[in-house]
Specification:
single chain, mainly beta, Thrombin, subunit H, six-stranded antiparallel beta barrel, 7 strands, 4% helix, globular
């Protein structure tokens, strides 16, 4: 069970879409879930930094109430930062809580 006060952050989960126009198809993002309460796990537990040739990859974990249909090909927007979802875990397969691992590239 998740205590309501634990979910202090607002996140938006977006799914990729393609819009077809006069110049062909254009990839874009549309909101799947808007302004959902979530927790960001403490940095000692939920955030890891990996150095790659492109820069740093910051991995972070978000915890939220269960919602069906959240997939690894989606992204999270939090405080204007985009995070690519890499893993979605239905905690204990009880359809109560999701633990989402996401990452963002930075320098």
């Amino acid at each position: 069970m998740i205590a309501a006060g634990e979910l202090r952050h607002k996140i938006t989960i977006q799914s990729a879409t393609e819009t077809t126009g006069a110049y062909g198809s254009v990839p874009s993002w549309s909101d799947f879930l808007s302004n959902r309460p979530a927790a960001i796990l403490p940095s000692a537990v939920g955030r890891d930094v990996f150095r790659t040739a492109e820069g740093n990859i910051n991995a972070i974990k978000f915890k939220m109430r269960y919602y069906a249909g959240v997939l690894p090909d989606m992204r999270i927007v939090h405080n204007g930062q985009n995070y690519r979802i890499t893993q979605v875990e239905n905690v204990r397969n009880m359809n109560v809580e999701l633990l989402i691992t996401a990452e963002t590239a930075g320098t």
